[in-house]
Automatic annotation (TrEMBL):
Protein name per the record: diphthine methyl ester synthase
Residues that bind S-adenosyl-L-methionine: L9, D84, G87, S112, I113, L163, L225, H250
Pathway terms, separated by semicolons: Protein modification; peptidyl-diphthamide biosynthesis
Family membership noted in the UniProt record: Belongs to the diphthine synthase family.
The keyword Acetylation is assigned to this record: no
Length: 288
């Protein structure tokens, strides 16, 4: 049996009772280590689970998946995923490989950023398409995420922005030379994400383009959701550029139409004057 086990968002104790029982009954346990992180390290998980963990980087999962599935038809193997196995990052390929090999599988779900983000005060059924923001380089500055955010806002919907994670990444130079030298881990902050969005806004304004998001759009920055030291900050996009939310992981939400209850919830963690320019669309709807 292949078990895909969600670990939740905080620390080692966030695994479910069902998930922990499955892990402790497995002969091998892999920890997916490239799409997200917990606030504790591998050693803390091993101590709590009472099992050794095998780190599964992108290369192992995407290029050598057969190694993970080896003997899973006759023994139990667990694949641990921060959050939910089918939350922000899906692992459908691993499931399909198991099915094609005749290996049964079971998914044990847990909380993920996709539902935990509701703690910021915005109602989950008012969210549109989720987008990912990537680190720009000197020669690559994609903007497609901005257009998706604008599309959501036009429909009155909020947008959850998942921020880039660089773990065990190679520089282009080392990649071209075939050197297995990896760059230090990097995690995009809310401030960096807000700055990239503002650069897009400024460029499109200069080109005379229609702006679906501006520097005054109300947004929410969240950090380390599920941990004891989680932080939530509501502010305009301009305010969030200089907002320090500390250690990773960070996510950004760009608001759409706001119900009065959502506005009241946003005030709890709002920067000064963040909500002062909200416009009333009707008696029960606001926007920025």
């Amino acid at each position: 049996m292949l078990y895909l086990v969600g670990l939740g968002l905080g620390d080692a104790t966030d695994i479910t009772v069902k998930g922990l029982a499955a892990v402790r009954g497995c002969s091998r346990v892999y920890l997916e280590a490239y799409t997200s992180i917990l606030t504790v390290g591998k050693e803390a998980l091993e101590e709590y689970y009472g099992m050794p963990l095998i780190l599964a980087d992108r290369d192992l999962v995407e290029q050598q998946a057969d190694e993970i599935l080896k003997d899973a038809d006759v023994t139990d193997v667990a694949f641990l995923v921060v959050g939910d196995p089918f939350g922000a990052t899906t692992h459908s390929d691993l499931v399909l490989r198991a099915v094609h090999a005749g290996i049964p599988y079971k998914v044990i779900h847990n909380a993920s950023i996709m539902n935990a983000v509701g703690c910021c005060g915005l109602q989950l059924y008012n969210f549109g398409e989720t987008v990912s923001l990537v680190f720009w380089t000197e020669t690559w500055k994609p903007e497609s995420f901005y257009d998706k955010i604008c599309k959501n806002r036009k429909a009155g919907q909020h947008t959850l922005c998942l921020l880039d994670i660089k773990v065990k990444e190679q520089s282009i130079e080392n990649m071209m030379r075939g050197k297995k030298i990896f760059e230090p881990p990097r995690f995009m902050t809310v401030g960096q994400a807000a700055d990239q969005l503002i650069q897009i806004i400024e460029r499109r304004r200069e080109e005379g383009g229609e702006l679906g998001v501006t520097e005054d759009t109300v947004c929410v920055g969240v950090a380390r959701l599920g941990a004891d030291d989680q932080l939530i900050r509501t502010g305009t996009l301009r305010q969030l550029v200089s907002c320090d939310l500390g250690e990773p992981l960070h996510s950004l939400v760009v608001t759409g139409h706001l119900h009065p209850l959502e506005v009241d919830m946003l005030r709890i963690n709002a920067e000064p004057d963040a909500l002062k320019d909200l416009k009333s669309i009707d008696s029960s709807t606001f926007c920025s």
